[in-house]
Amino acid sequence: MSQPESSLMSRLVSLSKRRGFIFQASEIYGGLNGFWDFGPLGCQLKNNLRDQWWHDMVECPPLGPDGKPLSIVGLDSSIIQHPRTWEASGHAAGFADLMVDCRESKHRYRADHILCLEVFYEKAGVKKPLGVLSALEGDEFDTTIIKKAKKLMQKAGGGEILPIEASLAVPFTTLSKEQQGLVIGLDAENVGTLTEPRAFNLMFHTYVGVFQDEDSKVYLRPETAQGIFLQYKNIMDSSRVKPPFGVAQVGKSFRNEVTPRNFIFRAREFEQMEMEFFCPPEDGMMWYEFWVAERLRWWESVGCRKENLFGHVIPENEVAHYSKGTTDIEYRWPFTAPNFGELEGVAYRTDYDLKQHAAFSKTNLDYIDQEAKRRYVPHVVEPASGLTRGVLLLLAEGYQYDESRASPEWLKIKPSLAPIKLGIFPLVNKDGMPEVAEKLYLDLRQTYTCQFDAKQSIGKRYARMDEAGTPFCITVDGETLKDQAVTIRDRDTASQERVALDKVRAYVAAKLASA
RNA sequence: GCGGGUGUAGCUUAGUGGUAAAGCACCAGCCUUCCAAGCUGGCUAUGAGGGUUCGAUUCCCUUCACCCGCUCCA
Known about the structure:
- This protein is α+β, with helices and mostly antiparallel strands.
- The chain folds into three domains: 8-93 and 219-397, BirA Bifunctional Protein, domain 2; 96-200, no CATH class; 403-514, Anticodon-binding domain (Rossmann fold), CATH 3.40.50.
- Strand 19 (367-369) and strand 20 (374-376) form a beta hairpin.
- The protein binds one RNA strand through helix 1, strand 5 and helix 12.
């Protein structure tokens, strides 16, 4: 099958805009880096994926290893929480690397990556300091320093640069304020152009109340999970759940990403679907393995091909210090292919979060098991996926190109997730056909998202629905008035079936349930 | 953040220092009995700001956004 020249991603961006899935945020003002809006079809698709997750996670959770349904309840916590939350979670520190700006070159560096070294030279037998040079740590350190020293030497009017000793180089962060002021920046020619190391916070912040001082500073959550930990005790006290049980949440999160990229893949405002599964400490590994398998199965169930999914076990030395195991569920994105990129992370977080919040809040978060007569802080397994990444997956996975079709580009989205389930058309906009079609539309729209369309040729209407990923189109034709039947056209095969008007509901219901 | 690329209508493209062109899409009407048919008409664009110039979409500068590669990625 021939493919257009342009990349799959650019075609997805184009189709998304053309059909109203995803628009650039604030487009008429030139856009805003890292922000996207979901159009009529996009938000419908996103809601459908979210609802499916919620159904499969909260309303009808999977069966556990013992064959009994798991116990998982929902939560919708605030985007803004007490600022101490993010100190306890580690985000305030982890999201705030010290950065240094250069006033001359306008560049920004991570302060601990800058190595500084004082270089000396000799002139007329006298050893003199040339200056404190800096370069990024790495293999090139020596050559970079020497290159800069030579340049400086020329300006100084000549002399013999003494051999440098790279091992004596120290990170910028370890220098005193005075010493920092003497450093020549990485891309600068003058002394003291580097700013003091500053916290470069990746969390968005704002202020609660009208007085904007440090005491009122709060953060927009960078993940939904912490809200769950904060309410873990209230949920147990009010919902008659006990370990093992889960708490699920869907919502917006915000991160000041250094580099937003790849359409909605890495955006600064995005949506997450997270579930924290609380269990006795000794069962942690078992539930971790359970959820890795379960989440892979789920992504397949929403229409992702198995070969495009990959459970990437994070090596022990790269796993966060509090985690006893993390598996990234990765998808073969158009921009990572043939490699994979993160879609969801399943992490065994041990009792780290609850213990942190217990310590920071001075609240006892032990679970008291009255049967076994013991108390413990539950361990947690967290499947955390990106809802907006999931939408991108459905678009990428569903994108089809077939020049033999009326619309070469079309979306093969699982019918139950499709933004529009049914297109309803009169074959010709006269002879009583529109009236019958409209009656059918008014009936079916109560159950399914439907689009009624009587404009232009029937082929165009089918093509439009193909691009929107609508799985079925129902057409009322000249025969309908006589035989009380309509044709139902299948998106994937373009084949048609004659179905009696009074059987349409059953037909559609069966198709949507089986597909 | 660095380097490279791109920015003209909803989409895909053309073009020019002097009235911005086309195809498709979209809308209206006619027509049309199953896969983007036809006819007529219509809407819509030089990302933003500044400079050079009598005149800039074109040349220059700045900026913004997107794409690619690095960097970063709790």
